[in-house]
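Notebook entry, structure prediction.
Reason for the run: the old model in the group folder had no record of what sequence produced it. Starting over properly, with the input documented here first.
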Amino acid sequence: MQNWEVAAALERMAGLLALKGENDFKVRAYSQAARQVIRLSEPLAVLIDEGRLDRLPGIGKALRAKIEELVATGQSAFLARLENEVPPELLALFAIPGVGYKTAAALVQGLRLSNMGELERAAQNGRVRSLPGLGGALERNIIAYFQERSREQELFHRGVAVPLAEQLRRYLEELPLVKLYRTAGEVRRGKEAVAAVEGVAVLSPAGGREALIRALRGLPWAASINQAEREEGPLHLETLFGLPVSLHLVSEEAFPAALVKLTASAEHWERLAGRAREFGFTLTGEGLRDAAGRGLPLHAEEDLYRALELPFIPPELREDEGEWEAALSGRLPVLLEAEQIRGDLHLHSDWSDGTASLEAIAAAASAMGYAYAAITDHSPALRIAGGLTPEKLRLQCEAIRHLNETNGGCYLFTGMEVNINSDGSLDLPDKLLAGLELVVASVHSNFRQSRAEMTGRLCRAMEHPSVHIIGHPTGRLLGSRGGYQVDEEALIRQAAATGTIIEINASPQRLDLPEAHIRRARDAGVRLAVSTDAHSIATMEDMPYGVTAARRGWLEAGQVVNTLPLPELRALLRKKQLSRKG
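New structure, fully documented this time:
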C-alpha cells in the first residue's frame, strides 16, 4: 500500500472509532497518525524496512502493527471489524456543519443510530436538542443537511479520490489491452467530495472484458470486482477504504460522447441533449446522430461542443450553474491554470509543527518554480502546535532575512498564522504583527460559538491593518469535522470592504473556502489566495487541489493574488496595512 492509501484507511478507522464511542485520545491518535503518514516524503515501506516507523510522533506499538499490516498485505482486520460493528453510512455525519468526532459520538450513542434516516427523523421530532451538550442550532443544521443533499452515499475528499483515480489511470494505460482511458465523473469535475471514482475505457481489439477483469485483480486496493447485471454495463470495484470505482467500457466511436456524459452533471448533459434536438440531432452516450440516424464523427469532447455551436466548456464548470448562459453569450471565464501560481502563501516549518527547515522549504519552492513563499508558523496560543513566542518569531524573521540575502532563489516572506481569539482580537502584539510581511489570521479554538459570535469574531479580525489573509474561513475538515457556524456572505462583504484576502486552503481535507462560496467572493470583488497550509515538503504538492477548487469557483488568474509577480504582491500587501491605518 502507498502512503495515501494507508492514510485513508487510518482516517476511516478514526471516524468509525469515534462513532463507536471510543475515548477521544484513541480517536485522535488514529487521526493524527493519518496526518503524519500523508506528510511523509518517503514511502512507509522504507521506514518499516529500516526500523524507523516508531520515530513518527504518536505511532505506538498498536498503530505500528496496523500500519505494517496495511503496507504488507493491503488489508486490515481491525478496519474490517470496525465496519462490522459500526455502519459506515454513519461516516456521513462528519459532513454536517458543527459535527466533529465528539458530537458525532454523542448523536450515535445518544440516539442509538444505525443509519442516517434515523438521524433525520430524530431531528425532525426534536430529539437532537434534548441530548446533553447539544442543542437547537445543531438540530437545525441536521435538518438543513437532509433538505439540501440529494443522495445517501458516503462522500470521500479528493485526497483519497484523486490518488486512487490517478493510480487506476496509470495502471490501465500500461495495459496493452486498454487502448484509451480517461477519468470521468465527479473526480474530473473537481468536486470537493465524491461518491465514486468513474472512468471510461476503450479496449484494444486483442483485449476483452474477462481479460480486463483478470488484470484488475492485480490492483492492491481492489477488494472485489463486480459486473453490472447487463453484460455491457460497467465494472464495479470495491476498495479497502470504502470508495467505490465504476469502470465504463465503450467503443472508440462512442468514447468522446461517453466521456462528456459521464463527466457532466445530469443537468448539464440534459441541456446538451436538448440543444442537440434543436439542431435535429440525437445525443446519447453512444454519440451524436443526425435525423437519418447517421453518426457524426467525434474524435474528442471539443468536437461535440463544436457540432452544437458551443465553445468548449471545461469539466469543472459542467454543473448547469450558469455555464450554459455564459457559453452562449461568450462570457465563459478563462480559468486559472496551475502554471500561473507563482508562490504559496501559507506554509509551516519545523519552527512550529511543520517537518521541514526554512532552507528545505525554500529549495522545494524553487524546484516547483515558485518566485516566493510565505513562512506562516503558528502563534503562541497554539502550544500543541509549537506556537512561536514573540522572541522566537523575531529569531525566525532574522533567519528568513538572512536566507533571502544568501540563497538567491525563491523569496521567503516573514509571516505568521496568527490565532483569532474568541473576541476577534489577535494572538500577538500589534507592533510585532506590523513588522511581518504577511499575516494569515485563522480560527483554531472555541468552534462552538454561535453563528453571530463567530461571524463577528472573523469580521473584527479583518479590521486589523496587519491581517492580509483569512485562513481556512469555515474551519471544516472534510470527512472528520463539519465547519463552525459562520455567515459566509457577511465574511465576503467584510473582506471586500477591508481589502482582506480570503484563502482557498488547498489541503484536500479542507478545500476551504468551500467551492459554493468562491464564486460569490469573486463576484463581490474579493481577492483570493490559493495556499496549501503545508506542514511538510510532501504536502506542498497539494496546490493542484486548490487550483481545481478555484476553477470550480470560476476564478481567473487575475482574481488570485499568488499569481502576481513578487513586486506587485508586495505592493498589494502593503496597501492593506496603509489603507486600514489611514
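Summary: The chain has a mean pLDDT of 92.
The old model has been moved to the deprecated folder.
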